[in-house]
Design goal:
The protein is of the alpha/beta class and 172 residues long. It has five helices and eight strands; from the N terminus they run E-E-E-H-E-H-E-H-E-H-E-E-H. Strand 2 and strand 3 form a beta hairpin.
Length: 172
């Protein structure tokens, strides 16, 4: 039977939250994914992570991310999804970094054939919404069908039940 995969990137450490820098023990997308998983218990969860970690210092991390964006980097990931064929729907979560997903999302999308699959994107942010992410991830996974996607204010990750329901509705 076709299944759903929830794949996400999330970074712990200092981040920009409602105008000030705070330390997040758990990344916003990680919190959101726990909420999705609670409503979709049969879905598998895969954390997209890079071999080389970003600095936990927000000001350093934004410069690292900017440099990777400029270089169109494809950072190496720590793991691969076993048997992507078994999934017909992929819920894909990521933060907005400089208006786009982290480059790790492009490494992920370019590692598999998503033809015929549905990808439901969601993006947590601090004001920029989905940014230009939908157009860019569309180009990185030709053949996939993308839903409209859902933007979630990262600072509100712990109480984003309405947006989580929108994600699940797009996955159905
Ligand atoms: C490197 C970096 C760049 C960011 N750039 C933006 C941005 O351009 N626009 C925005 O709204 N938020 C930006 N943010 C804030 C994050 O998108 C937001 O805090 C998100 O919820 C983080 O998710 P995470 O904790 O799961 O990694 C940036 C954060 C970082 C660390």
């Amino acid at each position: 039977m076709a299944k759903t995969l929830i794949a996400f990137y999330s970074r712990r450490g200092q981040n920009y939250v409602d105008g000030s820098i705070r330390n997040l023990e758990k990344g916003n997308n990680e919190v959101i994914v726990e909420k999705i998983k609670a409503l979709l218990p049969d879905a598998d969860v895969f954390q997209i992570d890079t071999v080389k970690k970003y600095s936990p210092d927000y000001m350093v991390c934004i410069e690292e991310a900017k440099e990777e964006l400029r270089a169109k980097a494809r950072p190496q990931l720590t793991a691969k999804v076993e048997n992507m064929d078994q999934y017909d729907t992929i819920i894909l979560g990521y933060p907005n970094w400089w208006g786009l997903p982290p480059m790790a999302i492009f490494t992920f999308l370019e590692s598999y054939d998503f033809s015929g699959k549905t990808i439901v994107p969601f993006c947590s942010h601090e004001g920029s919404g989905l940014g230009g992410s939908i157009r860019q991830i569309n180009m990185a996974a030709p053949g996939a069908k993308f839903t409209a996607g859902v933007a979630i204010h990262g600072a509100a990750a712990s109480h984003c039940d309405r947006e989580v329901k929108q994600i699940i509705a797009q996955a159905e």
